[in-house]
Amino acid sequence: MSGGRSSRGDSASARQIVYGRNPVREALRGQRRVLRCWAGGSGAEGIDVAPEIQLQTVSPEELDRIAGSPDHQSIVCEVELFPYVDASDLLDDEQALIVALDQVQDPQNFGAICRSAECAGATGVVVPERRSVDVTAAVSKASAGAVEHLRIAHVRNLADYLAEARDRGAWIYGAEQGAAISYTQPDYSDRTVLVLGSEGKGLRPRVREACDQLVSLPVLGRIDSLNVSATAAVMLYEALRHRNESTG
Question: Lesser CB count within 10 Å: N end or C end of the chain?
Fold first, then answer.
């Protein structure tokens, strides 16, 4: 099951922008090459830009233009395209903990999920090639740069990937509002894939059917569901808690 796209070229089409202090700091010590940086005023203070990387001082208006956003915190870098990995490789670890997202399209949600996954020590994140957000400058900003240290894979068909994961010994737990099984009940000790659906529609039927169990989080207030990124964080840390207790 091929993970897909990785670019190492220096052509303009093989580059991306990263902006904001944390995303730039993490890009500078992450998995892809930083090509050049722009800063305004004291924007580069406290950020270790290697001497071989061109650093140019520009106006706030120019930074807005380069970043395509006013949220750059006076520092912007040009980097290589994000190096997506092969999704099958994420399953090699016998205790792999993978987050699979079914057509999550909001950059803020995707970035927040990536931040939680990286902090919780997840093996990686899997997203479909179509109708899902890619790693962009906005996603990097929302993740506070966590994407620079996280393995992320594309798959052509998420349901097929989940079937492959099951064949390789993984347990597949899908988050669904109203499911009878609490998210605290599964055994997350072995290979585990946590599946979360899109912001509006949840899990698609084929993806839902590919799960071993559907689990839910309690909702006791007047709002009927949690944001997908909040759900991901809760499930990741429940899996981490379970694993820590089972090895302690």
Answer: C
